[in-house]
Amino acid sequence: MNKFFRPTLLTLFSLAICFPNIWAQEKTDKERQNVVSGIGIVKKIDLEGGFFGIMGEDGNRYRASNLSEGFQKNGLQVSFKAKVRNDVFGIQMWGTPVEIIELHRVVSVVGHISKVKLGGGFFGIVGEKGDRFDPLNLRPEYQVENMPVCFRAKVRTDVMSMRMWGTIVEIIDINKYIKASGKVTKIDLEGGFFGIVTSEGGQYDPLNLSRKFQVDGLEVNFEAKVRDDVFGMRMWGTSIEIIDIRKPKKEIKKEEKTIEKTKEVKEGSSN
């Protein structure tokens, strides 16, 4: 036999080691592809006698075979990790069948950072309603006493703490929070856009200002989260994402009076 084709013990041994590893890696990759995760809302689906599913933020729908009773609440926001069950078929023609691997309730809160003088001291978050939250992963830049913030977090009932203060949470996203009054202002830069200038002189560049509020000089009350992660070419003001925006009551009354006068004029001309 040609010596170049003669197998050696070393070669055979190497193949014996490598092939199982390659097979195991392929199996792991395939299993990873069959796992989905995200944030969603539990929905009561009125089909085939009724059942609960999860509507993901991305629009995907999931039908969980093992959604525990404590999470079967319509409108409950959750963070989930699940295995896709392509081998499961049911009469409920809704969503992708999945088996829950990990599931947590999600809270969305507006509050402020608080320095807690317990257990050597740490930073917690106190919500507007007085609820207390002990975050596992509060970044250093947010560890500032009384900083107003808005955040979403997973409630970690599976984690125990010796601090005995507040609900233990794992932050999903967090931003500085602003609640202020100001005027919508037309900014003649970069083709023109609408910003908000507060009475204290703060300048804010809203990423999602509704068209009906894009009126130069319009007074508004607004709530927003600061988007430090957004960088634009406009180089004006602080980038914010509007949470809520409204016209002040005096502005609404002024509009109502204008409508009434217009109506009276029309009625007078018709007579």
Helix content: 10-25%
Sheet of most strands: 13 strands, mixed
What's the CATH architecture of the largest domain? Beta Barrel
Task: Give the overall shape.
Answer: globular
Determine the mean pLDDT.
85
Structural class: alpha+beta
Uncertain segments are none
Q: What is the CATH third-level topology name of the largest domain?
A: OB fold (Dihydrolipoamide Acetyltransferase, E2P)
Q: Give the count of helical stretches.
A: 2
Question: In CATH's first tier, which class of the largest domain applies?
Answer: Mainly Beta
Let me know the number of strands: 13
- Rg over CA atoms, rounded to whole Å, is 28 Å
How far the N terminus sits from the C terminus, by CA atoms, comes to 116 Å
Could you describe the 3D structure shown?
The protein has 271 residues and is α+β, with helices and mostly antiparallel strands. Helices cover 17% and strands 43% of the residues. It contains two helices and 13 strands; from the N terminus they run αβββββββββββββα. The protein folds into three domains: 38-103, OB fold (Dihydrolipoamide Acetyltransferase, E2P); 106-176, NigD-like N-terminal OB domain (OB fold (Dihydrolipoamide Acetyltransferase, E2P)); 178-251, OB fold (Dihydrolipoamide Acetyltransferase, E2P), CATH 2.40.50. It has helices at residues 9-33, 249-270; strands at 35-45, 51-56, 61-64, 77-84, 96-116, 122-127, 132-135, 148-155, 167-187, 193-198, 203-206, 219-226, 238-246. Strand 1 and strand 2 (51-56) form a beta hairpin.
